[in-house]
Amino acid sequence: MKPISLDHFLNKEISLELIRSPEYMTYVGVFDRFNFILKHNEKLTIPTSSYYKKNHENKLKRLSLLKKYKQENLTSSQKITQKIAIFDTENDIYQYEKFRYHSYLFNQISGNHLNLIEFMTDTHPLKNYNDALSYIKRVKLFGDILSANLEWLKEQKKEEIYPPKFVFDHVINQLNELVNYKENDNPLIYIFTKKLNDINIPTLDVVKLKEQLTEVIRLDVNPGFLLILNFMKDNYDNANVHHGVWSLPNGDEFYNLKIRSFTTTNYSPEKIHQIGLSEVDRISKRMKEIFYQLGYEVDKTVGEMMNELNENSNFLYADTTDRKKIIISDYNKMLVQAEKDVKPYFERLPKSKVEIRAIPEYSEKTAAGGYYQAPSLDGSRAGVFYANLYDIKQTPTFGMRTLTFHETIPGHHLQIALNQENKELTLYRKLGYRTSAYTEGWALYAEQLAVEIGMTKNLYDELGVLQSEMFRANRLVVDTGIHFKKWSREKAMDYMKKTTGMSDTQVRVEIERYIVWPGQALSYKIGMLKILELREKAKEKMGQNFNIKSFHSIILDQGIVPLFILEEIVNEWIDDNS
After folding, report:
1. pLDDT, tens digit, for every residue of 418-474?
2. DSSP string, 494-562
3. pTM to 2 decimals?
4. Cα separation, 38 vs 28, whole angstroms
5. CA 429 to CA 416: how far, in whole Å?
């Protein structure tokens, strides 16, 4: 019997993972037309210990089979696929076997209590009456999910792993808010009702459906949230007095794994720390040059000068009731302009549209400044750039263009939508692997590209780009500072405040994010530096043969890959075209 090809094997694997994850099936979108058979839109994953164990056993089998494919029998594309799959699977196995309970399941920025609500309000489709019934059935499962989460927390407790005190404070406050919402303020009810009214469901049906949902929240959702809330309160005094993962069992080894997974390099924490310090110094000098050109007295640190600029009312929106609507409108104008400006530098632009929305109020206090949600695979759901408009100081006008470039065009939306629309990529290459070293590295590269090709309209806009880049260079310093050099949260906040000039709110939210998500923040700048390094290498070796459109295509056309594989791809392209 002829052995199954690598592509078919991994496509089958990713298909099985899709089927095992009703959330993933909904997120992808292409299966929704078959929901009457699969009924995935009325299901959610119940994350029991047996679920995790079964998933681990599947990973072990996958790794064994992956290694049986011989290189000489694979195409060049399949060789890349095999390397990606082995790298990713080995990291997952190592994480489960050595550091199963090292993550903070309930945290202030990506905790499961927030993820559940966001999935229902932002991803679950509500296009008809049956979708509404499925919504209610899904929400009813929150209780089972949170009960399983509680068992996970109890296992974590046995290993004496707890998040820092500020995480307890945030999560307790968030859970208290969730269980004490007035009915119409509850995001699960508010968004549900709004979407039903938008699709013209009869008023009587809306009333009945809302009553059903309200009862489910009372009987299933709130008791589930209370389980977690009570655990957090009962274990409050056990909060970790330290902020870095170095303080966890085998914490340094855990951090090295996070660096390997997120940056897809074997860089040491010390090397990354030093890269960060060097980049902070370089960017500071350029920012001072711009301040001088703009006529400012350069007699303070860059952070102090940017802080004054951040608080200058000339660059801030008035805190009016329609402020968010005005800002979103301005963001959309910037997006339209960006789409026009990038056309000469890319061989293809995505067909999928991107929308800009404000981050929901229930999570805006602790969410990052902005984030992107990819479109569905079938294009039925647009990509979304969520902007945090909680604090007026989070949206100085000179920083808006660079955030638009990062999250939409030529950043995340361009890269991710092109990836999903690429007919040359297998299902595994589109959906089976993600690394922020590539995706965030590309988005940060996109910001610099925007400056290079004139998408910034003045020196203040360039200061916004440089502040963003300084912010990412800072991450190399503070993430390794917290998790490797044993910095406190306060020391990291002080460093970031002095060197970036970001608002107090932004600095606090970001540092607290790095504490609960170790290593992820390193990926942006490390990925960007690698893409720039490869571009300079290509220019040097290819000379007149170098073409920026072709370079961007070679970076984007292979889908999401680890940096070490991206380097191999570009090196081969250089050799073939020099």
Report:
1. 999 999 999 899 988 999 999 999 999 999 999 999 999 899 999 999 998 999 999
2. HHHHHHH---HHHHHHHHHHHHHSTTGGGHHHHHHHHHHHHHHHHHHHHGGG--HHHHHHHHHTT-S--
3. 0.88
4. 14
5. 12
Instruction: Spell out the residues 6+ positions from residue 401 whose beta carbon is closer than 8 angstroms to its own.
Output: 334, 338, 450, 455, 456, 457, 461, 464, 465
Q: Is pLDDT of 242 > 50? A: yes
The CA–CA distances, whole Å, from 144 to 4, 49, 123, 173, 222 equal 38, 13, 20, 22, 12
Residues ≥6 apart with Cβ < 8 Å to 231:
150, 153, 154
Cβ atoms of 9 and 431 within 8 Å: the answer is: no
Residues 368, 375: Cα–Cα separation, whole Å: 20
User: Cα 509 vs. chain centroid, distance in angstroms?
Assistant: 15
**Element containing residue 386 per DSSP (H, E):** strand 383-387
β-strands 383-387, 354-358 pairing: parallel
Closest CA to 262 of 126, 26, 510, 437: 437
Element (H, E) at 372: strand 370-373
Residue range 138-162: average pLDDT? 98
Mean pLDDT of 175-202: 93
Q: What is the CA radius of gyration of the chain?
A: 24
In the sheet with 370-373, reading across from the earlier edge strand, the strands are 354-358, 383-387, 370-373
